[in-house]
Amino acid sequence: MTIYNFSAGPAVLPKEVLKKAQAEFLDYANTGMSVMELSHRSKAFDDIIKGAEETLRDLMQIPDNYKVLFLQGGASTQFSMLPLNMAKGKKAYYVVAGSWGKKAYTEALKLSKTIPFEPICLASSEADAFDHIPLFEADSIDPNAAYVHLTTNNTIEGTSIYDLPDTNGVPIVADMSSNILAVDYQVSDFAMIYAGAQKNIGPAGLTIVIVREDFLNDKPALSSMLDYRIQADNDSLYNTPPTFSIYMAKLVFEHVQSLGGVAKMAELNRHKSGLLYDFIDQSAFYSNPVKNEGDRSVANIPFVTPSAALDQQFYQEADAAGFKNLKGHRSVGGMRASLYNAFPLEGVEALIAFMKAFEDKHRLG
User: Which residues are the active-site residues?
Assistant: First the structure.
């Protein structure tokens, strides 16, 4: 039985990358050691981390005045690091368009009780179960604010921001965890981008931070480990980094490059997600909760059947048929198909065939 992994993260990785890592697992580059055994100060690992950065810079066309950091702690650690480093004494705006944006804002509120800054919810769609990207007026933003934080893709709710909003000249910071390398954004439009690796980049344990040099903090943060300036000045080697995850990221970057880069991945993702959206739209049995078609994510596609009981039966039967991790997030229920870069087109086609058969079997009336 063929297995298709629809997990929202940790997620499917390219088979070609896994095979290469397998071949090099016991002996990397004739060192006689596994990558996991290499010193992070060694020449072999220096080549890995520099190669990873160089390839990522090429893929995303990262300007020279941006630093690329390889950090630990997941994207959620950036919820704290960002205001700790960048917002002292200023306002910081948050667009709350999904569960992760809400968590970022909630963390900022918590920090504001001990750190002098003012987190402001600029716009929220929580009252509508995050079924759309909320809008706001640019002139409602203080031009002296530290940043506007947004989440480019809402993994749980299946919405995305493709065209960046007018922020009245205030720098944009983006959590790009679930659609980095999947949508062709211009890095220069952001002051900072951060992304957990476990969706489009590699295994869990690594976070990518891309930050404009003039946006970096001038004053030290409370902790050296949580200080962007210190991490940048030490080329992500202030302490032992997640070496194996960085190696895997390098392999993924090279793989994406071999396929034609981010623009090609974006084209493939639009095609894959378009097939599934088209099927759902023409069905009277399935529905997608996203209100506006232009807000639909190409990475995470939630859908439901006519009842919660049928939803449960669907993902149980799907799991038995080899369609793994389709159960929706516990906060929203239903199903969710995560179609990241490494997810194959044939998996989407197979899922649609399964959905059609399930509909034919259970269609009401």
Answer: 100, 175, 199
